[in-house]
Amino acid sequence: MAKPTFSTPDLTTFCRLNDLDLTCIGQHITAHKAVLKCRPNTTDNWCRRCGGHGEIRDTVLRRLAHEPFGHRPTTLHIRVRRYKCIECGHVWRQDTTTAAPARAKISRSGLDWALRALVVDHDTVSVIADKLAVSWHTANSAVLAEGHRLLINDPNRFDGVSVIGVDEHVWRHTRRGDKYVTVIIDLTPISQATGPARLLDMVPGRSKQVFKQWLAARPKAWRDGIEVVAMDGFSGFKTAAAEELPDAVEVMDPFHVVKLAGDALDEVRRRVQQETTGHRGRAADPLYRARRTLHTGTSLLTTKQQARIVRLFADDNLTEVEVTWSVYQDIVAAYRAEDRSEGKRLLQKVIDTLASGLPPGLIELKRLGRTLKRRAADVLAFFTRPGTSNGPTEAINGRLEHLRGSALGFRNLTHYIARCLLESGGFRTVLHPQLR
């Protein structure tokens, strides 16, 4: 291994001040903070009005928060010269826009560090503000503005998208205003096995019109490139996709199909529980105790759970629960079939069975059958379109729930959408290429 080549210690290089056109000329370091005294490298002594020569009048101090070193907030004290034109008397300051834009409180290197901390390391704005020694509002405004400029507003962000997922998301738990947003996910990396899904956009509201307007705002060439739209059972999303993406295939993903069957199973269990005992489920009731076991696939049941199911269905009063449970297990087994054509055949058989021949008492199964029959083409399309599950959409929803919890909630929807895009928009590899 070749020996490293050492150079003379240089605080300007170590703190990346040369990228800001600054030179470090002093330092003041304590256990809690570091202050670096700097001067600009460019003289800038020519008048902007008449082009005459300027002479130094005095100096002013510009303070900038910089990226922290050694877990200490680092502040730059830049001695900025003020010049006065000897021809016209105009006064101006030495140019320091390479270090930070006018009136900015954070250096460009500090802003770059803060954006990577938010996107790559998932730090909260409060943590970033503490490490920069600035207020929360200063850090939040600067980081979100830089995130919009560098990442969110990138015109190439929507390139290469051919499979999308759409779902609803609860963004705040309040009684005022719309609590829902529509999330659009890029599932193309999943379908092509090239990487994880990413959040494309979030739109306030949850309706056909919201999704339709978002699609209509995209360029026609982009819409023509969409091949598959994965969605839940909400008919508004399907109608919007059919109108704006007529050539795309709508797929009702397995997650929501199984959820519909599971909801039917829960509903019939509660109804039978009330009819047979006269009260809601209690800890000692066998039907209530088995509520989680009923949602477990038969191939995953333990011996103890299998025995519990046998004892439960030995009661003739629970026949409706047993029939609904069997349908639920048949749907799960169809999706777990290794051969997709076999899985499609099994699910088609379930849909046909539910569409006709059910006893009149099974109202929950009849309702499930009507839904599956109406969306049969979308449900069965999953088996011919691998990688179009809306599961990654639900996974991103979970990450957004975690984000909202770590931030202790969001009152501003615009900030929430920006934070969600930075959190789950697939920008980590942009800021940290080694994460590919």
From TrEMBL:
Record's Pfam families? Answer: DDE_Tnp_ISL3 (PF01610)
The source's domain of life comes to Bacteria
Q: Where is the Transposase IS204/IS1001/IS1096/IS1165 DDE domain?
A: 164-419
| The protein's name | ISL3 family transposase
- What are the top taxonomic ranks of the organism? Bacteria, Bacillati, Actinomycetota, Actinomycetes, Micrococcales
